[in-house]
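Sequence only, no structure available. Ideas?
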Amino acid sequence: MNKKIFILTILFFSFIAITQIFCGNADINILVTPGSVSTTLSISTNSYNFGTLDLQTSSNSATAVTLTNTGNVGVSLQKTINYISEGITLTNDNPSSTDQFRLRCVSKSTRADLNTDFSVVHTTFSTTVGTYNNLTDTSGNQVILNPSDSSNVWFQIDMPPSVSNSSQRTFTVRFQSTAQ
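Reply:
I predicted one. Tokens follow.
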């Protein structure tokens, strides 16, 4: 019996050795580079003027700024205030000091209602210039656009209780698209 087990063991290991000699592996890396991915965004206008507003008042835009995904992939949208006039400070609360403003924006197909549609916390900008956060709809959902889709964007400005001078102020808003 031991002899049979010994012979079977020899045969088994011989088979494994022969298999290792006569069998081999070959690997192949499959590569692909997506071509022509475009995340371009167009905007309907390069400025919006609220005009002259009284201190401690709020106003919302009367016409929409339309963002259109002119790229070939779906995108999510973010927003930032990229530049502000010298001397301005930004707040996400009601402006309470000289030259302190709050600017908000929201995506909505029809005109956004003053205060009501801008009440979602996500409508505010970061108070740090150049820091992005999501562009959202009135429910706080991030705006996502498929190729050729558009979004109407509305703004609300909340004025400070006082200003150091009556010169026109500038806020440059930048929208960014990120491929989905």
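Helices lie at 2-22.
Hope that gets you unstuck.
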